[in-house]
Design a protein that fits this description.
Length: about 260
């Protein structure tokens, strides 16, 4: 219990110090109160947004966009990874286009995507796919490339066909890396969506932040930012718990160690 309590205290000490400094800065007006509203004002704004249902509405819209876009990413990235691994000719054909796309920040394509797809959901979905594709694709490819040759030789001995080879050798061998790619991909598409919602949206957390800024409600801006951070932490913790149940032989907590 003492070790657990100490670990909890060490985890919370920096956030608590930040909260204390924030309170002091707003109380003694070290910073313009308009630019840095007090924690109390931010808390009251959060309560108001929660009571009216506005915060939940924007949060649900953003989550739906992320899940829909990430589903498209999985449909594209997973088959393409296996195809490139099994047929190296596709790796040679797609190397340059994929490297080019990986170097282009998704946010930079938003003006073009709006011209192509309008300000509806299609442009936001495209941003999410561009942001989350490479974390999933590259991690899955990395997992496939680390599969031991002995397993491949065993599959040849057992005369597996392509479907059996993928099902019983490739996918289980690359599964831990695939889950890491999902973890990273979701965080990347969440960040990219916020940028898209700030530019072309009528709902979502990104829209809430930008609209609050334009209305001079900096306390609501803080609510939106804090909500993003809390959602990111919760989602990451849930994914780690789920993945450690699926692959108990690999502790994904190491992804957070420095």
């Amino acid at each position: 219990m003492n070790r657990t309590a100490m670990g909890t205290f060490e985890t919370l000490i920096i956030p608590l110090l930040i909260l204390v400094l924030w309170t002091l800065a707003s109380s003694f007006q070290w910073v313009n109160p308009y630019l840095l509203p007090s924690p109390g004002r931010v808390f009251l704004a959060a309560c108001h947004l929660a009571e009216t249902g506005e915060l939940a509405k924007h949060l649900i819209v953003s989550f739906k966009r992320v899940l829909a876009g990430f589903s498209v990413t999985l449909v594209i990235a997973v088959p393409l990874s296996f195809l490139i691994y099994i047929l190296p000719v596709f790796k040679r054909l797609l190397r340059v286009p994929l490297e080019f796309l990986r170097s282009v920040p998704p946010i930079s394509t938003i003006p073009l995507l709006i011209l192509w797809f309008g300000i509806g959901e299609a442009s936001k979905m495209a941003v999410i796919v561009m942001a989350s594709f490479f974390p999933v694709f590259l991690n899955l490819m990395g997992g496939l490339n680390t599969i031991e040759k002995e397993w491949q030789e065993l599959s040849e001995t057992l005369k597996f066909n392509h479907a059996e080879y993928i099902r019983y050798v490739l996918f289980p061998g690359a599964f831990p890396s695939f889950l890491t790619g999902i973890q990273l991909g979701l965080s990347y598409c969440w960040r990219a969506l916020m940028g898209a919602e700030m530019i072309a949206a009528a709902s979502g957390l990104g829209y809430l932040i930008l609209d609050s800024q334009e209305m001079g409600r900096i306390d609501k801006v803080f609510v939106g930012i804090i909500t993003l951070g809390i959602c990111g932490i919760v989602l990451d913790r849930v994914l780690i718990k789920l993945f450690n149940r699926l692959i108990p032989w690999k502790d994904l907590e190491v992804e957070h160690k420095w």
